[in-house]
Amino acid sequence: MTPFVPALPPRVLNASRTFDVPSTRIRSLNHWILQRASIQAITFPSGHVAAAVAAAMVLLQFVPLAGVVFCWLAVSIAIAAVVGGYHYVADVLLAFVIAVLIFAAFNGFAN
């Protein structure tokens, strides 16, 4: 996918900072860890968003109230990933699509 999508996370590109997020000690610690532990490479698609959406859909099927809570959490994770500069919107959207398609495929096989 590298030829078709940017290879660096938005937080690495100074020109991509479109959201004015206040600097806090926790945010500074997060950036310190990211500089030392992250591979600083391809962010496409977002695994965190895909996992959150998949978990929410499974929970909706078996424990609807918990599923609703997890849907809210999945949307929060998706928004935070973009606002925080960890992912591009395309990363988040593709992760959502992948989770839905895989859930639908496996749910179809079970029926």
Structural descriptors:
mainly alpha; 111 residues; single chain; 4 helices
Q: Can you give the mean pLDDT?
A: 80
Radius of gyration from the alpha-carbon trace, in angstroms: 16 Å
Low-confidence stretches: none
Indicate how many domains the architecture comprises: 1
Helix content: 55-70%
Order of helices and strands: HHHH
* Net shape: globular
Distance between the termini: 34 Å
Count of DSSP E strands? Answer: 0
Strand proportion, as a percent range, falls in under 5%
Q: What's the assembly state of these chains?
A: single chain
Helical segment tally? 4
Helix and strand content put the structural class at mainly alpha
Largest sheet: none
What do these coordinates show?
The protein has helices at 25-37, 47-62, 64-83, 89-110. The chain has 111 residues and is an all-alpha fold. It has one domain. The longest helix has 22 residues, at 89-110. The model has no long low-confidence stretch (mean pLDDT 80).
Offer a quick outline of the entry.
The protein is mainly α and 111 residues long.
Fold blueprint:
Elements (H helix, E strand, L loop, with lengths): L24 H13 L9 H16 L1 H20 L5 H22 L1
